[in-house]
Amino acid sequence: xxxxxxxxxxxxxxxxxxxxxxxxxxxxxxxxxxxxxxxxxxxxxxxxxxxxxxxxxxxxxxxxxxxxxxxxxxxxxxxxxxxxxxxxxxxxxxxxxxxxxxxxxxxxxxxxxxxxxxxxxxxxxxxxxxxxxxxxxxxxxxxxxxxxxxxxxxxxxxxxxxxxxxxxxxxxxxxxxxxxxxxxxxxxxxxxxxxxxxx
Length: 199
Fold this sequence. Notes:
The chain is of the alpha+beta class. It has three helices and eight strands, in the order E-E-E-E-E-E-E-E-H-H-H. Helices cover 31% and strands 15% of the residues.
């Protein structure tokens, strides 16, 4: 059996996190990882955390999994990121084995329907849905060769960009259509006060 990645639950803060100045340590919390993907390391807040074990420290290429909430998705940290941040529960830190899996592919496959159905079955709690760390031990994923993984990720990025452009185009068309219709209404009619009876 291939060891695809190391799995580490996030750091449990015993006290309320207190913001710090430049000498503090950045923390990645659930709110920093949008359910629809993306992570902006430059927006992370620094906190007074003291000495944190290395296993909780995120690195470029690590994958973060949202184990709490209605959407349990994963995102890969940008390969060019050179910062240092502690991963805080309820995030789960996945450290890919680069010999077998591309980080972006691991995040992508965890977000696909098959894996999401697996997490749905493993979910606990009603008021606050939670995915236990143990659910990863019996999760089966498709693992093509590395080069194929990179191609899949590249196509997915292009597809996502196409979707974003399509939405932007549709919004602009809607705005333009509305402006034309307003001009048509103004040209075809006269301006009147709205009057109504009062009881």
